[in-house]
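Protein chain data
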Amino acid sequence: MDSIINAHPELEDRELPTGNRWLNYSEEIFAEIKNDSCDECYHYNFRFDIDELPEGLTAIEHDRSVEITGIPTENGAFEFKITVWVNRIEYDHDGNEQGIFYDEGHLTNDSAHKTYALVIR
């Protein structure tokens, strides 16, 4: 079934800067809702497929971003996939948060994924 509302999450399309082995690395990748003026009306959940993330680096979830951080201990070229899910937050007439509305993908496209490349020298 296609979604009814044309609002969907997107991960930014960008290249990650090259890192150096044994030096601190920290880079943030952001998500947003396209085609909706109320980005704050969504709850973001990230899932990571990080089998190929270099040793020494971890992925830390923030509200609307994921941070790749740590001290890489191996060099090489790596690829990893990030998936983001979103669900709309419901508010009452006074603007108080009432909880998260899980639409199971029928009203909005609730997930997106992107593969990123990272080089460690």
Remarks:
- The domain at 8-120 is CATH 2.60.40.10 (Immunoglobulin-like).
